[in-house]
Write a structure and sequence with these properties.
This protein is an alpha/beta fold and 504 residues long. The protein has 21 helices and 15 strands.
């Protein structure tokens, strides 16, 4: 950490010409982690900066141990660095985010937490409590102070608000979960309703207000947030001229999809603030776009690229062969399977390429390789099948990526939680990590077929694993032969040489 005498707080900010404004608290936020601070709180900062919102945030620390006390020491101020490539140029934005009014540890400040419900200015609840946060937990009780699960904590707050304001629709709330699960708002609403019917069976009016008067947004959030820059912290603090133990970092790119009636834009003027936010009555095409292009491009690339000797996503973009492979895959085999307007698809494809080129994010290929079989099924296989349906032939690059998966899973030794494998290009030993069943299966298959397999028979077995793909992929015309031919080529000529022929 930098040896600055000053720590970031209100006094330090004032010396820098920044006065922290005490605005009405309009947002209650469950979660004090890096993502919400670099995404939602930044968006509120941008709306305030343009005089469109005039609102601050109360943050609830939903777990017993967290960052609220550390935030309090800095008067809830923190520095946010957004860095990346945009329109072909490297950009760095630095701001002191000043929108957090106060923080609450619900385990220590339970009564103060409930009082947040009495705030007449409150309009929005946001959350990011991880993918496991929106769950029904039968052991939670209405008398717990607090209950364990996030929905149960939230329900007590909403019950208190109902008791304070009754069914006044003007005091109903927009509830916007940001957890990375499909239809997060719908799922949260279902869990709250189930808990309400269990806890308050006689309070039908409350349950109706809970589900019908409040509005639950389904969302899709997209920004890579790399968080506290441990290796750079001292240099960044020196640059700032103060010590900040809460520095947050993320990429320039951001995108938020909100599935909700557009009338709520008046309450939450994100678009008017110039933010890349899409209000829609159906978020499905945007979720599909993200999974197929962003996640799909990762999954179709990382295993082959690692076998070529590369280590990071940035390495892929710096490689003439691999970057050409990614671009061709996105624009010629993935985008043609999607139904959004061409300009939206092409813009997103270009943004993905710039995000992969971000010099400030070191995204290891081996980290992305975790559970690649299930990732291939959800991220790449739908594009492969849709391309085949629309074009009448199997896609070359996506078929190659499936062959690369099979080769990547060539384990030499079965370890307790992984396969130990050897990268042919340089002899590097790496670990393949997946479910025990997948690891056992591939270890058995490679043991059976050996180093010089009958690729066609081998691939027939892999494609026939309905437990992986939910169908027998040998039934897709031409796919078995195509994947087998690429596996054979990689074994004989090497992965990079095979990929080079694909893109030349």
């Amino acid at each position: 950490m930098a040896s600055n005498d000053k720590i970031l707080n209100k006094e330090t900010a004032t010396q820098l010409g920044i006065e922290k404004s005490s605005r009405p608290v309009k947002v209650l936020q469950f979660g004090e982690g890096n993502f919400l601070r670099a995404f939602i709180d930044w968006m509120i900062y941008e709306m305030n900066k343009k005089d469109l919102f005039n609102g601050n945030v109360s943050i609830v620390q939903p777990l017993e141990h967290g960052m609220i006390d550390k935030m309090s020491e800095q008067d809830y101020l923190y520095t946010l660095y957004l860095r990346g490539v945009q329109n072909g140029e490297v950009r760095v934005e630095k701001n002191i985010i000043d929108v957090v009014e106060r923080g609450l540890n619900v385990y220590r400040d339970f009564e103060d937490y409930l009082k947040e419900a009495d705030n007449p200015d409150l309009k929005l609840i946001v959350s990011n409590t991880t993918e496991a946060g929106i769950v029904y937990r039968g052991e939670d009780e209405s008398t717990d102070k607090p209950p364990v699960s996030f929905p149960a904590k939230l329900l007590l707050l909403l019950k208190r608000r109902y008791e304070t304001f009754g069914s006044d629709p003007q005091k109903a709330l927009m509830i916007m979960p940001c957890e990375l699960i499909d239809r997060n708002g719908d799922n949260l609403k279902k869990v709250l309703k189930r808990l309400a019917e269990k806890w308050y069976p006689e309070a039908a009016d409350f349950t109706k207000w809970l589900t019908d008067t409040n509005v639950y947004f389904n969302t899709l959030v997209d920004r890579i947030v790399s968080g506290y820059p441990r290796e750079e912290a001292e240099a960044l603090c020196s640059e700032c001229g103060y010590t900040d133990n809460l520095i947050d970092t993320g990429e320039i790119f951001h995108f938020l999809v909100i599935e909700a009636p557009e009338r709520y834009q008046k309450e939450l003027p994100l678009v008017q603030a110039g933010l890349d936010v899409k209000w829609t009555d159906d978020m499905t095409p945007y979720r599909t776009r993200k999974v197929r292009i962003l996640n799909g491009a990762h999954t179709m690339t990382v295993l082959a690229a690692y076998l070529c000797g590369l280590e990071t996503v940035k390495d892929c973009m710096d490689s003439e062969i691999v970057s050409a492979y990614i671009k061709k895959g996105i624009y010629e085999e993935i985008i043609p399977t999607l139904d959004l307007p061409d300009d939206e698809l092409n813009f997103f494809g270009g943004a993905v390429l710039e995000r992969f080129s971000n010099p400030y994010i070191r995204h290891l290929l081996l980290s992305i390789s975790l559970n690649s079989v299930s990732k291939f099924k959800t991220r790449v296989l739908p594009s492969l099948l849709e391309f085949t349906t629309r074009k009448g032939s199997v896609p070359e690059l996506l078929s190659f990526s499936l062959a690369a998966l099979v080769l990547f899973y060539k384990g030499q030794k079965r370890l307790e939680t992984s396969l130990s494998a050897v990268r042919a290009v340089d002899g590097a030993v790496y670990e393949v990590k997946d479910s025990p069943e997948v690891l056992d299966d591939f270890f058995s298959l490679w043991s059976k077929y050996g180093d010089n397999p009958d690729c066609n028979e081998f691939i027939k077995e892999v494609l026939g694993r309905e437990v992986y793909w939910e169908e027998d992929l040998n039934q897709v015309p031409g796919l078995t032969d195509k994947v087998a031919s690429y596996l054979d080529a990689m074994l004989k000529d090497g992965v990079e040489a095979t990929m080079k022929k694909l893109v030349s």
